[in-house]
Amino acid sequence: MGACYDGAGRAQRCLPVFENAAFGRRAQASHTCGNPPEDFCPHVGAAGAGAQCQRCDAADPQRHHNVSYLTDFHSEDETTWWQSPSMAFGVQYPNSVNITLNLGKRGLGAHALSLPHWGPEAGA
């Protein structure tokens, strides 16, 4: 019957197995870096460390960071990520980005969506 039910079939407290509900799903982003090509400088390392700037180019398979990277297979050997347009060089458009991810399920209350954030804290 499973770990969430006792021998009599009654529901009991349990922790279901983690499932990456977003893996392989289609994601959409209102804005993505690289069109036109641009530099971006992720915030990495200790405070005051030099910027580690990189180039984002939507037309270059080695330098794009499209939205499909939000739901691809995680590999330590080949790191991929989605990248929004940079605001590092005084560009203030867009000032927000919308991400849509259809998990193919109703009642999202049983699922959690966690997106890591590598930018400065809000209001910083």
UniProtKB/TrEMBL annotation:
Residues 10-124 form the Laminin N-terminal domain. It holds the Pfam family Laminin_N. The keyword Disulfide bond applies. The keyword Ubl conjugation does not apply. Keywords: Disulfide bond, Laminin EGF-like domain. This is Laminin subunit gamma-3. It comes from Saguinus oedipus (Cotton-top tamarin).
